[in-house]
Amino acid sequence: MKNHRTIHSHPDEAEPALARLAQGSQAAVDLCQCGMLHVHIGPVTLRLDAAAFSDLLTTLGQAKASRSAYDQRELAFAGAMTLHGSRRGDA
Q1: Which tops the pLDDT comparison, 60 or 9?
Q2: Are residues 43 and 81 in the same domain?
């Protein structure tokens, strides 16, 4: 198994040059001079190649869509219970 030094190394410089691609309130993404993407979320940094970054975006998009569908089902259920004069937990 390769460690990150094998995959992500910069023999000519102690610190790699990073270009900020995006910045949000909770996360940021930098592009390294070697082509790796650094995804910063709080104190955690993921170093991803382009394929892994793309896959992560796809997976997060699917999770967001699933969460939205779940939330819509929950709202519909709560609305139906309100119409019938019941609440969750009532016997």
Answers
A1: 60
A2: no
Check: pTM over 0.85? Answer yes or no: no
Q: Structurally, how many domains does the chain consist of? A: 2
The C-alpha atoms of residue 29 and residue 24 are separated, in whole angstroms, by 9
The Cα–Cα gap between 27 and 41 comes to: 5
Nearest-angstrom CA–CA distance, 39 and 59:
15
Structural domain that includes position 11: 1-48
Instruction: Report which of residues 65 and 1 the model is more confident about.
Output: 65
Report which of 28, 5, 7, 30 is spatially closest to residue 18, judged by C-alpha positions: 30
Mean pLDDT of 80-86: 65
Q: CA 76 to CA 17: how far, in whole Å?
A: 50
